[in-house]
Structure prediction request, 289 residues.
Amino acid sequence: MDESTPPPPPAELSPPPVPSTVPSGSPTDFLKGVVGKRVVVRLTSGVDYRGVLSCLDGYMNIALEQTEEHVNGVVTNRYGDAFIRGNNVLYISAAEAI
Amino acid sequence: MLIFSVFKTLTDQQVTVELKNDLSITGVLKSVDQFLNIRLDNIKVLDEARHPHMMAVKNCFIRGSVVRYVQLPPESVDTQLLEDATRRESAAQTKR
Amino acid sequence: MDTSSAIQEPFDLIRLSLSERVFVKLRGDRELSGILHAYDGHMNLILSDVEETILIVDQADGAGEGQPTVNMAKRKMDMLFVRGDGVILVSPPSR
Prediction:
């Protein structure tokens, strides 16, 4: 371990670049921000669902609109509405500026 | 709770339980609990050739978590009643 | 009221599908089409007039050689309870 105290961050340096479209904040803030936006939902199986996020709950159950199912980059199904059971969700990614 | 109640109304009826390991067992539903564990009597395995060790088994307890499907006797299920009960339960949960 | 903006939580989507034909995608390459009569918070379902499609992918041995052949097995069931833990996706009929 390093006994010396770490040097204070140089004050003259600019803060790390954060794209202005990405708000800083908690995961909850992110989820609130993406409701109504286009998202990619990846399941643990590797299947992607691209659509407009209608809403979600604490289990990460998800309601999507205008959903496309992508397997290995190929569209394999389209759904007007889709309910995804939360336990299958690996991540939710914003597909447009939030 | 709703589904538990449905299964309770189906006791003493013939059902077919399909497990996640593809084993299908038909029998008389003797009892069910809140985890949807199931006790079957008078059982018969659908594909006995594939599961010869089940031939001597007359009744069984099935852990709820290993169930994939249960085929129910359609004449014993009041679908209108089910839909109304489902709406009531979902309304009760949303209010919390 | 019956626009999609009436959906406030994901389960609303399922509630609005009661007594309608729904598409259900399950673990193990299984798909169901059936009329939805009941569900609960685990996504346990009770469906009637169900058609199940099982996709059997025969992975041809040999790396990157040829397409895997996909076989479909179908069967029908009158009244079916589906345990929620196998559910991946439920899609209501398009409105």
Remarks:
- The longest helix of chain B spans residues 79-95.
